[in-house]
Design goal:
190 residues
Length: 190
Amino acid sequence: RYTIQDLGVVGTNANQPGQPFVISNSGWVSGGADVGAALHAVLWRGGAMIDIGNPGLGGNSMAFGVNERGHAVGEAEDTAADLSTTEDFCGFEAMGYSSSPTPCVPFIWKEGKMVPLKTLGGVNGVANQITSWAAIVGYAENRKKDPGCPSPQIYQFKPVIWFEDWTLPLPEESAAAHLASSINEWGQVV
């Protein structure tokens, strides 16, 4: 048996209306919604949509994970970061939301504020999921140029676990790019 709950209007743009991604055991839903000409990270709870991308980090954002306490993680354009990148790492330019590439940083939203997470020395990164005890997984750029990409400004990205004030690169077996997409409550990462 089940019931269907309508989240309501997800966004205002019929071409890119938004997307819910994850639901926590306590009923929080994370995702993104079109807000005018921008894409904002949002949370839904009890039928209400909360725009956590306003003010965000100054640009477009998307929430890929949420835990039982309503802490959300994802990717956001950081308009205050180093603008020398020419890479559309978040993909917001490809979706038509940005006129030029902007640094894409991993974030956590808690206590009403979006906070960027540290990368591995590079500009870009993405946080994919968060546990109930606030361990976060995703991937981040380092400062090593990716030998498989022809552009000199493309750097390697590696899987990462963030927890409180530390950033831990996950072990790897090769120099190729990797990412961490999910973590369970036992700390096992895929």
